[in-house]
């Protein structure tokens, strides 16, 4: 029974007796069977700490958000952010941390692979001002990732090396999904972070460029309790994009790099189609070139919809509308490309530089306009 007497209501309306110390941010996608248990584990691990947990759910089909809402109704330490029309681990973590009012925020997986018993230690390192960022590390003495199969262990090791070398990062486990950070420091970095991809910690470390005092604490990466991993081959692409973006000091964005990569596959598709239509179907050049351009644009559109903009993927009828708009954007892009190339060429600059300038103009135009009109944020 809920006590609705005026006295009881007044008590509930009081500000918290102890100010909030820690928000635990948990991104979720199809984790219905894990969230309750995680909550109870946090409760046990954080006795004596004023904490809350913010689940950021991307409208999971399994109804994770409904389970969390019910928890939140019973206990205000559980909070739920339900995002609609968006997908992505990094973006979910960013929104969760920004929704917190606590001075410190932790990020951890919902599937109980991270060790919640480390949280108190991580918090005391931050509260004593010994660090700005504490990482739960698999790759230092005392930590491990035994639950990984050979293949994933190998990939993880290579990716870690690449990140460390390319971005001059000294942290042993920059790809960990388990960390705790001062919220004020995070808030400063947030506008520069990528909402796409899986590697939020790597992004935070690279974006901070040495301005964070980092401490690693060892933990054992356990096995997933219920459900399955959402890590797929796309994650590798996102990862490379992130490293390139940070390597270029954010001159190149992850999305732009993916868009340009897709564009270069389009060149290949174009020439293959041109060859097939010309040689195998023996059509005249103008027709063949037209078909090749159409096929290349269509394949670019499909790839961009699956890769570059997979967090905003167009579905159903929106695909047709998007495709037509994409043709339009690319058509104008081609004019811009040729125009710029001509202008440069007329300045008596070598043909290949003029061509490159045109191509660059084309891809920048297509990218900017596609973002505005084809995959615009609803
Ligand atoms: N909101 C939201 N949106 N949450 C997501 C999404 C998404 O698109 N994708 C995954 N999640 C949630 C999962 O529900 C889970 O709670 C957490 O993010 C981690 O996802 P997993 O699918 O369990 O990833 P993993 O265990 O394979 O990878 C973990 O370990 C890696 C280190 O090897 C993650 O912590 C990675 O960030 C980490 O790099
Ligand atoms: Mn996991």
UniProtKB/TrEMBL annotation:
UniProt keyword annotation of Phosphoprotein present: no
Keywords carried by this UniProt record: Glycosyltransferase, Membrane, Transferase, Transmembrane, Transmembrane helix
EC number, as in UniProt: 2.4.1.83
A biological process from GO: polysaccharide biosynthetic process
GO cellular component assignments: membrane
Membrane topology: Multi-pass membrane protein
TM annotation in the entry: 256-278, 290-307, 319-345, 351-375
Domain named GtrA/DPMS transmembrane: residues: 259-375
One annotated GO molecular function: dolichyl-phosphate beta-D-mannosyltransferase activity
Domain Glycosyltransferase 2-like: 23-188
Subcellular location: Membrane
Record-given protein name: Dolichol-phosphate mannosyltransferase
High-level lineage: Bacteria, Pseudomonadati, Pseudomonadota, Alphaproteobacteria, Hyphomicrobiales
């Amino acid at each position: 029974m809920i006590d609705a007497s005026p006295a009881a209501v007044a008590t509930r309306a009081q500000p918290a007796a102890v100010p909030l110390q820690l928000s635990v941010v948990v991104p979720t996608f199809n984790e219905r069977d894990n969230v309750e248990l995680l909550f109870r584990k946090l409760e046990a691990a954080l006795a004596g700490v004023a904490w809350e947990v913010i689940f950021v759910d991307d409208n999971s089909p399994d109804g994770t958000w409904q389970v969390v809402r019910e928890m939140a109704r019973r206990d205000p330490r559980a909070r739920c952010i339900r995002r609609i029309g968006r997908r992505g681990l990094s973006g979910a973590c960013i929104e969760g941390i920004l929704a917190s009012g606590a001075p410190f925020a932790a990020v951890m997986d919902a599937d109980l692979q991270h060790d919640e018993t480390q949280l108190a230690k991580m918090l005391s390192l931050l509260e004593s001002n010994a660090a700005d960022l504490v990482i739960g590390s698999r790759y230092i003495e005392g930590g491990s990732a035994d639950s990984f199969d050979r293949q994933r262990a190998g990939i993880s090791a290579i990716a870690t090396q690449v990140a460390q070398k390319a971005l001059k990062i000294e942290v042993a486990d920059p790809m960990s999904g388990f960390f705790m950070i001062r919220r004020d420091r995070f808030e400063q970095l947030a506008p520069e972070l990528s909402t796409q991809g899986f590697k939020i910690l790597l992004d935070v470390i690279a974006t901070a460029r040495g301005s964070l005092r980092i401490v690693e604490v060892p933990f054992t990466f356990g096995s997933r309790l219920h459900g399955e991993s959402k890590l797929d081959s796309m994650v590798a692409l996102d990862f490379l994009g992130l490293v390139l973006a940070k390597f270029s000091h954010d001159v190149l964005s992850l999305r732009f790099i993916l868009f340009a990569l897709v564009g270069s596959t389009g060149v290949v598709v174009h020439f293959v189609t041109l060859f097939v239509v010309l040689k195998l179907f023996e059509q005249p050049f103008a027709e063949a070139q037209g078909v090749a351009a159409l096929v290349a644009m269509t394949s670019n559109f499909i790839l961009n919809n699956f890769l570059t903009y997979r967090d905003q993927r167009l579905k159903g009828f929106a695909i047709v509308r998007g495709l037509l708009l994409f043709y339009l954007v690319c058509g104008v892009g081609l004019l811009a490309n040729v125009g710029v190339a001509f202008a440069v060429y007329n300045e008596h600059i070598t043909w290949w530089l003029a061509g490159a300038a045109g191509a660059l103009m084309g891809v920048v135009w297509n990218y900017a306009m596609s973002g505005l009109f084809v995959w615009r944020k609803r």
